[in-house]
Amino acid sequence: MAIKFKILIPSLFILLGFLLTAIYEQKIAQLNWSVGKNQLFKYEFSSELLKKRIIAQSNENSDLSSEIRVNLEEANLFSNNGIIPTYRPTYIQVIGTTLVNGVRFLTLKRPLEENIHNGFLQKIQNAFYYERTMRCDKAKDYYESILSEHSDFVREANDIAFVRLHYGYCLFVTGDLEKALENFRIVKEVRPGSSFSESAHAIEKLIEEAKVARATQESETFDKRRKLELLLRSGDFASIISETEKTDTETPEVLLIRAKALEKTGRFSDALGQYLSLSAQREKPNIAKSANARLLLIGHVFLKDERIITIAENNAKALGDQKTVEVVRSESKSISGNGLLDPSYARESNDPNISKQDQETEKDQKPETDLGRKDLINKELDAQLASYSGILKKKNSDSNVLELELSDGRHLLAKFIQLESNVFKIKTSTYGIDVPFSLLKSIRIKNGASGSILITSDSKKGVGTEIQHVGESLILKGQSGEMSFADKSIRSIHLQ
């Protein structure tokens, strides 16, 4: 009996030591995973960056330098060299978790997970990647998946606030304002007075502005351009795209607003086409400069594409806007590789402790691979640049275009001119412009190219090579002399 007792006591101590070691190992593993997660996902910092992005978005005078810096900070936030903290429990850690859960069960507490599924972290990383690259429709799906499939891991206040804040932002950008407000309400409940709440409040203010802008949009007495500017400032990009899809004949100002909305919703290829067209026109120099600044940003920062950079820098030189080139070049020096749209952080599953099933799961959860996304962008880019090259070739080869000189010093190019109620309806290759007839000074064929100008009035037609506006008449000059047309009788002017 004494011998059995002597054996039992050491055995109990050994067992107790083993159990304590198991609990200790479990706690250390949990702590390591938690610290790794916190190092990777700087929740408070990310909400501060979101707030900066929102402020810049609502500020009409926001500069390119600030925009580039915010994008850089966001790109670096979750990259962390592609390393995602993993927690694959050993047998002794599983035993430790079982012991801890036994105690938690007796004290009516929620049990710990035996295995922390890394898909939760991968999805958060992917969601944030899509969000910062302005594809909020995809980011929204990831955040929804996190809330529905990984609710066990969204229990801490920071986790809840982060997911709800960024999910709400994506809902806002994609046009679901009421659902976004519901998520912001939860953010303010779980983390009152925090940077999460401040960011949520900032977006709520934008939503109120968006609601006002939507109501204004329905008012027939309000200028369409002003309506769209209000929607752009409030961040309601979905409404802008929907409104501008209704017609193909828009002013350059409206087309620029549409292009910005397309860019902010991740439709870079569509936005690129608009920017290329707007930056090439010279009738509205300020619009051309604004569009070209976005091209510089896309070329230097987002896509790192030399073709776009070359086009944009040549445009800037022609527009006398070298200062913007210098700013974007300077701020984008630290951007390497293929630009901020490239998901270079996406890691391969080469951890020997990760099962094949988990590898397949992670593969499904990653954003498009570098190659896939790059190929997609290049195909879209090639198509847009080919189209742009075609426009330039046509523009250079087809010199037969009317050049209008206005009394305020402007020069406009036109294919066709129609007169309605003392207003010139000037049709260019891409959009229409209305100009008061009184501003017209002269019309000639651009660069003195061969061809004829045809004037059609109520009672007669005339063909010539140049038109002068004198008093209340147009004087058409041709080989056979001059013809006079009363202003009010003219119906159209175009090349023959």
From TrEMBL:
Name recorded for this polypeptide: Tetratricopeptide repeat protein
Q: Which ranges are annotated Basic and acidic residues under compositional bias?
A: 357-373
Q: Which Gene3D superfamilies match?
A: Tetratricopeptide repeat domain (1.25.40.10)
User: In which organism is this protein found?
Assistant: Leptospira perolatii
InterPro entries named in the record: TPR-like_helical_dom_sf
Q: Which domain of life is it from?
A: Bacteria
Residue span of region Disordered: 335-373
